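BUG: 3D viewer hangs when loading the predicted structure for this chain

Environment: internal workstation, default settings.
Expected: structure renders.
Actual: progress bar stalls at 90%.

Input used:
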Amino acid sequence: MQYSNNNHHPSTKTPYAATIGFFDGVHRGHQYLISRLREEAAASGMQSMVITFDRHPREVLGSNYQPRMLSTPEEKLFRLSQTGIDRCEVLSFTPELAALTAREFMQQVLKDKLNVAKLYIGYDNRFGHNREEGFDDYVRYGREMGIEVIHSDAFQLNKVNISSSVVRSFVSEGEVEFANRCLGYIYTVTGKVVGGVKEGRKMGFPTANIEPDDARKLIPAPGVYAVLVHVEGSGQQLQGMMNIGTRPTFGENKLSLETHILHFSEDIYGKLLTISFIKRLRAEQRFSSASELREQLILDEQEVERIFSAQK
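Structure tokens produced before the viewer hung:
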């Protein structure tokens, strides 16, 4: 996949079949759309292009908006590179870009700068100032300027149209198994191991406290999860259980992400961990004592081992 941004546009001699969107998570709905785009490009003798943005449009349009994303910018570009497209164009989403009408955007950006000859539109996608226009308008404008506009149908799971907002809702509710089905891969969070209060170590369950490397990355709902852990510099994937929550048994209220890696005792402070969420075991609970919590952690660990044994 070739990659470019606003500072370098592809040669206008090459006609492209393109699609446009933010593509947060590059989930199976996006993958389906891009697959259809590639088929259309190949049938037309064109190259395929995904056009996306360097930041979520609502970050520019609403100054108070704090995005919670399924993917970091780096993760998104990696996932897009796995789709087999020929080119990814990342546009800087600026107030000036946001002010363009759909017709202006199609003419000035898609046609004049990127030489888009076919535009594949996702089933729920709109663009242009205030998203005021729709698919019929895009078709009419395209006909005027020589861009064929094609509408894609939705990708469904269990009769649900898969979108980034749907996947975010599953992650936010801790439904990581169905979120993974929607994504087509396992949801992850990456962060550095930082110092903690070591209450887990006192109970025989030492934990690595994670500080996410991107504050915008969506954290699953509080609770205990079966996870796979990749330690920076290691080729291994280790089994673990993660607690996301405020540690109510110890009277705290600050959200923490603590991972107990099974059968592991190496010093990993300061290293990056990538946590892959497999299954939520239970919601966060407040226990009457540390000993009662320890008894539950033993049961949690046994359940995690059963989950991974069943996958072998």
